[in-house]
Amino acid sequence: MLFERPQDGSSTAIIVHSNSSPISEDPSEFKELVCSAGFFPVLELRNNRKYPEPKFFLGKGKVDEIKACLKQTKADLVVLEDPLSPSQERNLEQFLKRKIIDRKGLILDIFAKRARTHEGKLQVELAKLKHESTRLVGGWTHLDRQRRGYGNSAISGSGLGGVGETQLEADQRIIGSRIKRLSRQLEKIISQRRQNRRFRAKSGIKLVALVGYTNAGKSTLFNMLCDQSVFAKDQLFATLDTTIRRISLPFVGESLLVDTVGFINSLPPELVAAFKATLEELNNADLLLHVVDAHGSEKKQKIEDVNSILHDLGASEIPQLMVYNKRDLGNKPYKTQTDTFGTLDQVWVSSLNELDRENLIEVIAERLSDKLIVKKFRFLPCQGKERSDLYRSSSVLEEIFLEDGSCELVVKGEAELLSRFANKS
Questions:
Q1: Of the candidates 258, 307, 321, 303, which has an alpha carbon nearest to the alpha carbon of residue 284?
Q2: Predicted pLDDT of residue 78
Q3: What span, in angstroms and rounded, lies between the C-alpha atoms of 114 and 236?
Q4: Quick one: which of 60, 63, 64, 58 has its CA closest to 82?
Q5: What is the pTM of this model?
Q6: What are the structural domains, with CATH classification, of the chain?
Q7: Which residue blocks in 204-246 are alpha helix, DSSP H?
Q8: What share of the chain has pLDDT > 90, as a percent?
């Protein structure tokens, strides 16, 4: 399929789709990735080869076809959905005289453009450096040139020392030094996050984390639940930075809602490692809201991809609530579904519907509540703070003001939470 060249001066790209990707039947996602990186696709091709060719990965016929298409379209680069080894990437660039990017490099480029916070920029830079360090091994021939070394003439007998280091060795040393420095900075962030988590654990505050495939609508849902204005846009990896906000839940009280980075099929391991500090929040969550695009394609495959990453992170045992978002796009009604044990495990919502917000908050509160009880409390006029705290942490069913100025509250809430007020009333 041939497209017209853009008028805004964007870099143009020829896309080569994979024949072996789990979602290769729907090439739209990879094309959307290319557009998210700021490239304009002018032509889409497919790699029909079942087994990779050692030199180019692609077959010779496909490489010749791409070269002819580059001459016709004058595209600036070639983007392959398949993963390439450093030598295959180098061989293709030398033969086609164009920049070559594979799926992993494309995702890293997108992350580099979208990171906004200091922590996010550190994480992405670390991932890119780890990726680039593998590209130096067996890289360009100029990296093998040695730089002249100078020694001590009194020791060596002349003004010349050893052979010096090659450009490859110098680049490896510089990148290795930068990786160590970034790793130390991120370790400090990880330590600080762990300290914050210990504080939250002592306070008994519940933690709810949003997870899901990229562009499933997590940030929009986050904004709806917390009444916030976190950046949200209909594109892949629109937001990368972790955001934590307070949310008031019936029966449970003040809780925390976490918006995490979106997942995708074949997420580069360098990114998973770099975002360790961010993704560790998932392991401490009391409930995961697994957001799914109800109107999107390949829902089953995307759910499996997310669950696979959660398994790798050690978060697969945390309770999940499946939230099928964007129900309005398919004109579907709000509904819930329970599992065989009678536990609410699925809900269909729209992030743009205020009534759905209230319904979803109730479902979340019900899933977080271990044991709900009804209890009566009596507060004196001087106990206004305790009364206010009880209002925030539970659902008040009835309030009666007595002649002596005190009040009786009949509330419904979590047993463990209400037990804290037993000695205050």
A1: 258
A2: 93
A3: 10
A4: 58
A5: 0.69
A6: 11-101 (3.40.50.11060), 115-183 (no CATH), 204-368 (3.40.50.300), 372-419 (3.30.30)
A7: 218-226
A8: 12
Taking the chain (425 residues) in runs of 10, the rounded mean pLDDT of each run is 56 85 62 86 87 89 93 91 88 91 85 75 81 62 50 48 62 82 83 74 79 85 78 57 80 82 74 67 86 84 87 86 88 81 83 88 83 80 82 78 86 74 67
What gap in Å lies between CA 5 and CA 31, rounded to an integer? 16
Block residue for tokens 């290795």: 176
Q: Helix, strand or coil for residue 254?
A: strand
Which tens digits make up the pLDDT trace of 252-304? 778 888 887 778 777 777 677 666 666 777 888 889 999 999 887 778 888 98
Q: How far is CA 97 from CA 19, 53, 90, 293, in A?
A: 24, 19, 10, 40
Structure tokens at 282: 């998932």
Q: What are the tens digits of pLDDT across the range 133-153?
A: 776 654 444 444 555 555 554
351: closest CA among 215, 244, 248, 240? Answer: 215
